Amino acid sequence: MKLLFDFFPIILFFAAYKWQGIYIATGVAIAATLLQVGVAWYRTRKIEPMHLVTLALITVFGGATLIFQDELFIKWKPTVLNWGFGLGFLLSQFIGERTFIERIMGKQLELPKQIWQRLNTAWVVFFMAAGGANLFVVYSFDTETWVNFKLFGMLGLTLVFVVAQSIFLARHMPETKTEE
Question: Where are the domains of the chain?
Answer without folding.
Answer: 1-68, 71-173
